[in-house]
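Page 37, top half.
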Amino acid sequence: MKHTHVFQRREKILQLLRQKGELTIEQLEVHLGVSGWTIRRDLAALEALNQVRRHYGGVALASAAQPVPLLEINAQKEAVAKAAIGRATAHLIGSGQFVALAAGATTTQVALALRGREDIAIMTNALNIAQELSREPGIRLTCAGGEVHGDYYTLTGPVTERALSTHYYDLAVIGVSGVSIERGFTVSSQANAVSIDIMLRNANRRIVVADHSKFGAISHAFLAHLADVDVIVTDAPPPPEYRHHLEAVGTALMIASYAE
């Protein structure tokens, strides 16, 4: 939960700066309801990514023409783990399958691991995944339309939902923000949760890709119970209570190898 809250708070800082242009530390404290020390730590992290520029008493967006998309910030967290999960998940996708591949940092690694493959069809609601796979001759690619969210390269809304709901998939591969025994799988966007839910409902088999930091985390949009998917692919064994619960509900757990 800690990492999810940090990402959400830093996203909110960037949103506020886009709206206001420039803010003081004190103003950010009021908007976010956290201490000045926490704000300064967030600003230092955002400044290291060249997203904000700090000066005495305040902060503004960096002068760079285009801020770094938040998906790319998220991709830097547990990057090696995400890549290992992507490679392991790609091995679960067979030739001739039609795959719903949801937007996200870890699902992007699945897409990268599929490059060079033959005879696979993919439907995605992620602009970056569509771009990565657009020149792969062996992959038949369909990109759902819809409302564009530039920070995450995600497509959502009624147009997306209609495109996704009119297809049936051999396999759905999705990423999540949190994995909890009590609260299930959660994501940070309600709009994206609707799109992912359609992928899950229309798929014969359902795979969740989630690095070890997602276990115990809870975001604000419920997606599904742990029993509602077939496989969770992660990079390290989760706590024993998760392994026992997954075994009890019949959800397989696959631990990706870093050595591949």
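Page 37, bottom half:
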Amino acid sequence: MKIDLTDTTSARINTGLIDARRAIGTPAVGMVLTLVIVTDEGSAYDALKAAHEASREHPSRILAVIKRPGRSPRERAGARLDAEVVVGDEAGTGETVVLRMHGELANHAESVVLPLLLPDAPVVCWWPDQAPEKAGTDPLGRLAQRRITDASSAEDPVGSLVVRADGYTPGDTDLAWTRLTPWRSMLAAALDQKHSTITAAAVEGEAYNASTELLALWLADRLGVEVERKVSDGPGITAVRLVTGDGDICLDRSDGRLAELSVPGQPDRHVALKRRETAELIAEELRRLDPDDIYRATVQYGVKHLVSTARSGKGTDDGGPTAAARATPPAAKKAASGGKAATSK
């Protein structure tokens, strides 16, 4: 069921939600959190689609905030709130409110969102596109226990990692980090099978790819070794190589779907490592609402070592990848054993 409200208020929207639930015969509220999506009109459809799919695992009240401040003084003066209330199959397993804020009201979105939050339930704020430099101090971000950004959608994905590190607040996370969960899990499992001292590592992936840079930083931080960054044609991350005294441990994924894992002394095997949709990433992040300390340590560790990686890294003349940059750990660190590369998810 869908209800359109023009020039409305938060109180009328709450009344519309109650009326919509009664109309479809589900007056009880069984939602576990409020998901606030801050986006623009062009990206709203894809963001809402992903949120609705994720809500099948995490029934949520979804509030999509679309700001339209206007360009002229007259447009900015005409503050108005329009809303769409959606309950039922079109809203996944929860309910959705699309908030279009016009004029000066767009600068005070938190005053509209606050009365619409589920009582005594966690709040998660997600910026699918351009996020504030400090999500934790943003007026909407302050309402949330968990704040999700996506460095991959920024104009400068690698440079935005520095922004994320400088503005980090406990509860922040990024979908560029979430995309690494299968890679980190697979590498940790491989190192648990082969207890060898790691002496060096290399990460291969597309230029301007924030996830590739984060994976290199994670390995450098957790293993205490030099990590070489190589640029490939992608898609995304294509290979990770860990150098040990017994031989190289290699996880190679050239097609974005199936990877080959090579461990010294064991037969090569294929493992599923497909690139995941946004809905899967959001669903994963909603499973835990506590601060991700491993993400914090990774994004704050030596980010400046890799800022120029994607900007300057290009293929060699013969089309092969070249070392674009190196993440070097502090001299005091020693090469760690494989068991140190534990994942956080």
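Margin note: The longest strand covers residues 60-68.
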